[in-house]
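Feature request, filed as a ticket because there's no other form

It would be nice if the structure record came with a short human-readable summary line next to the tokens. Right now we just get the raw output. Example of a typical job, pasted below so the devs can see what we mean:
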Amino acid sequence: MIHQHTSLLPYNTFGIDARAAFFTEICSIQELQTALQAGIQPVMILGGGSNMLLTKDVSGLVIKNSISGINLAGSDAEKTFIKVGGGVVWHDFVCWAVENGYGGVENLSLIPGTVGASPVQNIGAYGVELKDVFVELEGVELATGQVHTFGHAACRFGYRDSVFKQELKGKYCITSVTFALTHHAHRLNISYGDIQKTLESNGVTEPTIADVSRAVIQIRSSKLPDPAKIGNCGSFFKNPETSRTVLERIRLSHPQVVSYDLPDGRVKIPAGWLIEQCGWKGEKVGNTGCYEKQALVLVNYGGATGAEVKNLAYAIIDSVEKTFGIRLEPEVNII
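Raw output as currently delivered:
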């Protein structure tokens, strides 16, 4: 059923009270195809609402993807293939995988959003990205209602990027994603961030995938606000990738600059560090602000509009560019 003039407040983690002209929730490909046949344009697909900032009411049809299901789809000597519905909550899938002994997504614990949204920006954390465990996805083309399959190469994954953020942006609803996870001899990645330190403080000397997942949850919970209490969408900005020449220039005035080497010879500088150096961490502007425990996170303290959050974001972008010569890019989808 398609509803009119629906508040999207319950459907976005920033807690923005924008409205959809038309709204429906779908639980199957058939329901999605039926909704598309109504011919209402434009169409916007909504997952967990955790990677979007609504700055105004939404015209056209908003479709909430609630397609469920976690199913085994085969295995080989090293890996098990698991097909997951696009509407499944990402962290619920990670918990299911860890509880059932499947490795590869434990570092991605507690990332907000749905499985269907995860390939769009190639979600990642603590040295692991979605592309590392991705096999294929199925998506329905919004213009035709036809189902298409995209393999790894077709998705053109990049850093927080994919073909679905580029030329196919807004053109598909991802209905399922298939992953390849290890079922034994798991290759743990504990060298990034504070995972090793957290494991040691927890007295873990021979970590399992469950130990790594718990450590990541512990770290994220200590740094990131709970959207149920403070509106936010996690990391608002991408960590910029730049040349060593730029890094060395920054190091002249900021010897303590934090950076990570990239395979192509460039470096990644944490956006949170850049923002903090510009004095934004903990700053409150009206009803919004830069979170006191993690400068990468913008928050809605209550009653903020999407336009307020957007204005703060671009004030931060301008400040960082003026100070460091680096222009930050939003990681979230600004509507």
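Something like this underneath would help us a lot:
The mean pLDDT is 94.
The first strand starts at residue 3 and ends at 7.
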